[in-house]
Structure formats: structure tokens, C-alpha cells
């Protein structure tokens, strides 16, 4: 089946304002959602002059985010996408509206939720709502950073190992070494391996990102290797080799783009794993240093209060972990079903 460009068929391609009009006709619901959100936020901006610059930023972000929440093909809202984007926006701009998460107030220690204290306070009088919002920055930041670093390292290594075994003399040895190394890492439980490395090196945010990414590199290596194996001898790969293209160009331009959907589905799962690993490390005292607001450390500080009926200290950070992990798993299922 041949594809004819608009210029070749005699029609003129829209440009400038014509492209905007064509896009609006093709996706009217997205345009209506974006316009509605813009009108509401601009009305709030004019009505209340406080935080004017921040409201403008939120308006622009809402206009950019609204089309991603609506599925024009199924004509339905993508709840997982909407919740994840809401969590990210909350982590980015939420701290501007909250109290100082490190501020101590002995007079308000262990105050129940209510009034200005939406989530109550902990045993040191710190606002739990402010700590949950600031903790979202840390947990989501570490999760996405660790998963991205694992993708950057593991994905090219997996593609290179199977490509070398198929097209490079002696490449089978490199493939075998990569497999043995990944099997050695995966022979240990992920959390126990992370615990051992953190106990030996010491906790800090850069080290935690590095450790969580290292324990997830073998996952991407083996996943990419299995996805690349069926296409490593495809016609377009052989044509690129006959054209004299270097190995790096073949991997980046011809092979890896064909397996990106599989990796994206695993990426969401790995972000959820990273959040859980960070929370577990902080829960046992090997995560971020005290008193940095982090969800796992907050659950550790609050679980002892459950005996005395002070459920709010541990409940809200635990719910934050639950919502983030469930949303990321739903995103992974959505990406997997669209492949």
C-alpha cells in the first residue's frame, strides 16, 4: 500500500492558522476541555489577584495537560494519566502553598485532622499535609530518575548484546557476559541487594538513585534483549548494515525505536518499584536522612502511634504510596494494551 503526500496528490497542506483550525476540527473535545479550563482559571485569576503569577503558570500547565487526559478515539477520560499528571503537578507547585515541612510546633503535636491542619500533625508538631506534599517531590523525583537511569544503561546494553551476537565476530562472548552479570544481580532479591549496598556505602539521595537504578538495569537488559532478538535480522537492519551505517546509528535509529513501547510499559512499573524500594529503605532507617520529608520515613514515624489511636500520622503517607504505585501500574497496563 503506497502513501501519497498531500503535495504529490495535488492538494495543498495547511500551514499556519490552517493547521490550528484543522487540529481543532479533528479534536474538538480536547479543544473544548482546554478552553473551559482556561476560562475557569483566568476567571479565578481576575477575581482574586493573590498568587497571580502562579495562577498564570497553572493556567498554562492546565492547557498543556488537558489534551493528554482525554482519549479522543474511545471518547473517554484516561483516569490513570489524569491522576499521575495531578500527582506530578501537585509535587511541582504544591509546596508553594503549604507550610514549612520541617517547622516544629510542640503546642500542636499529634493534633487530629481538622481546620487548617488537613492531615493533622506528627509527634513533633509538623504539618503532615505539608510533609506529604514535599515528600511527593522526593519520592517521584527519585523514582523517575532511577528508572530513567536504568533505561539509559540497560536498554542499549541489551540491544547491543543481541546485535553483537548476531552480526559481530566474537559478539557471542559479550552477550554471554551480559547475561551472566544480569543473572547474578537478579539472583538476589531486589530489596535485600539494595539494603546491602546502602548499608555498605551509606544513605544519601544521589546514592539511593544510583543503587535503585543499578538493581533495575538487568530488568531492562533482558527485556530489551528479548524484544530485539526477533528483529535483529530483519530486512531494514540488514539494509542499514549494507549501507555501511555504524553500529551505534543502527541501534539508535533502527532497532531501539521498534521496542520503545515494551520498555515504556516496564518503565512505569520500575518507577513504582523505585518508590517502594525507597520507602522500604527509609522505613528501616537506611533511606533519606532525618528529618527530610519522605513517605516511607513518615510511615515509620507514625506506625507506633497506631497503638494509641493516632492513625493519621501513618495513614496519609501510606495512602500516598498506595495511590502512586497503583496509578503507575495502571499506566503500565494501558501502554501494554496499546502495543
Query: Which stretches of 5+ consecutive residues score pLDDT under 50?
Result: 1-17
Output the helix-strand order. Answer: HHHEEHHHHHHHHHH
Let me know the number of strands.
2
The CATH architecture category of the largest domain equals: Orthogonal Bundle
Q: Give the percentage of residues in beta strands.
A: under 5%
Describe this structure in words.
It is built from 13 helices and two strands. Strand 1 and strand 2 (76-77) form a beta hairpin. It has helices at residues 17-26, 28-47, 52-69, 79-93, 128-167, 171-186, 190-201, 205-228, 235-242, 247-255, 260-283, 295-303, 312-338, and strands at residues 70-71, 76-77. The longest helix has 40 residues, at 128-167. By secondary structure, it is mainly alpha-helical. The chain has two domains: 17-108, no CATH class; 138-338, MetI-like (MetI-like fold), CATH 1.10.3720.10. The chain has a two-stranded antiparallel ribbon with strand order 1-2.
Amino acid at each position: 500500500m503506497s502513501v501519497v503526500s498531500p503535495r504529490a496528490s495535488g492538494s495543498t497542506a495547511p500551514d499556519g492558522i490552517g493547521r490550528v483550525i484543522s487540529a481543532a476540527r479533528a479534536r474538538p473535545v480536547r479543544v473544548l476541555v482546554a478552553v473551559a479550563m482556561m476560562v475557569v482559571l483566568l476567571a479565578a485569576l481576575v477575581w482574586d489577584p493573590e498568587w497571580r503569577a502562579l495562577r498564570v503558570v497553572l493556567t498554562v500547565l492546565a492547557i498543556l495537560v488537558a489534551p493528554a487526559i482525554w482519549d479522543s478515539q474511545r471518547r473517554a477520560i484516561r483516569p490513570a494519566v489524569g491522576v499521575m499528571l495531578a500527582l506530578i503537578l501537585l509535587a511541582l507547585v504544591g509546596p508553594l502553598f503549604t507550610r514549612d515541612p520541617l517547622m516544629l510546633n510542640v503546642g500542636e503535636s499529634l493534633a487530629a485532622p481538622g481546620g487548617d491542619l488537613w492531615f493533622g500533625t506528627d509527634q513533633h508538631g509538623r504539618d503532615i499535609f505539608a510533609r506529604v506534599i514535599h515528600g511527593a517531590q522526593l519520592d517521584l523525583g527519585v523514582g523517575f530518575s532511577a528508572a530513567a537511569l536504568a533505561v539509559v544503561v540497560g536498554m542499549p546494553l541489551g540491544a547491543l548484546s543481541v546485535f553483537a551476537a548476531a552480526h559481530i565476530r566474537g559478539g557471542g562472548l559479550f552477550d554471554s557476559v551480559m547475561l551472566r552479570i544480569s543473572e547474578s544481580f537478579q539472583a538476589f532479591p531486589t530489596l535485600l541487594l539494595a539494603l546491602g549496598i546502602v548499608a555498605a556505602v551509606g544513605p544519601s539521595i544521589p546514592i539511593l538513585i544510583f543503587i535503585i537504578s543499578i538493581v533495575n538495569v538487568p530488568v531492562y537488559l533482558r527485556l530489551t534483549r528479548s524484544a530485539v532478538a526477533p528483529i535483529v535480522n530483519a530486512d531494514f537492519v540488514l539494509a542499514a548494515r549494507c549501507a555501511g551505517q555504524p553500529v551505534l546509528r543502527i541501534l539508535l535509529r533502527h532497532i531501539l525505536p521498534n521496542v520503545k513501547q515494551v520498555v515504556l510499559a516496564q518503565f512505569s512499573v520500575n518507577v513504582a518499584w523505585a518508590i517502594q524500594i525507597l520507602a522500604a529503605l527509609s522505613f528501616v532507617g537506611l533511606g533519606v536522612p532525618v528529618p527530610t520529608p519522605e513517605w516511607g520515613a513518615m510511615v515509620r514515624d507514625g506506625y507506633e502511634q497506631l497503638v494509641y489511636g493516632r492513625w493519621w500520622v501513618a495513614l496519609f503517607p501510606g495512602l500516598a504510596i498506595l495511590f502512586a504505585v497503583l496509578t503507575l501500574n495502571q499506566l503500565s497496563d494501558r501502554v501494554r494494551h496499546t502495543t
